[in-house]
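Notebook entry, structure prediction.
Reason for the run: the old model in the group folder had no record of what sequence produced it. Starting over properly, with the input documented here first.
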Amino acid sequence: MTRSAPEAGRGSTGAGQEATVQEPAAVGGGPVSHAIFRLARLHRMFAGQLLRRIGLHPGQELVMMHLWERGAQRQADLVRLMDSDAATMTRTVRRPEQAGFVRRRPSPTDKRASLIEPTAASHALRPEVEQSWSGPEDLVAADLSVDERTAARHPGTPGAPERLSA
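New structure, fully documented this time:
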C-alpha cells in the first residue's frame, strides 16, 4: 500500500507535489500507529536540524531545560527527571560538556557525586532552544483550537478520545 506524505526536504519532487512512502504489508494492522511513528520521526528530524544549528543534538536541549529551571543537578537526578538510564545520560551530558554548555563540579553534600550545571554559554542558547521547540509546535498545531491542543496534551480532558484516557 502506498500513501502520500508531505515532502520532508528530500527527493526531487517539485512544489506542490507529494512524496510517496511504500508501507510494508505488515503495517496494514496498524496504519495509524505507522503514521504516528513517521510523524514523530519527521518531527524529531526537523527539531534536530534546528538544534544542530546551535550545537546541540535532540535530547540535550531537554537536559539544558531542566538545568536552566532547576539549577545544578546530580546526574542521577537528571536520569530520574528524564526517565532515562545512567549510560544514556552520560552520553547526553558529555557532548554539551565538551562544547562548554555544562560543567561538572563536586557536590558540597556528597563527596562521591558531582553536580552538572549550565554555563553562561548555555544560557545564551536558551532563546534559540525555545525557538527550536516553538517552530515545530507552530507547524504541528497551527490548525488546532485551544481545546484540541489541551486534549492532545492531556488525554481525558473534554474533547479527548475516551480510549486514550485509560
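Summary: Residues 1-14 have pLDDT under 50 and may be disordered.
The old model has been moved to the deprecated folder.
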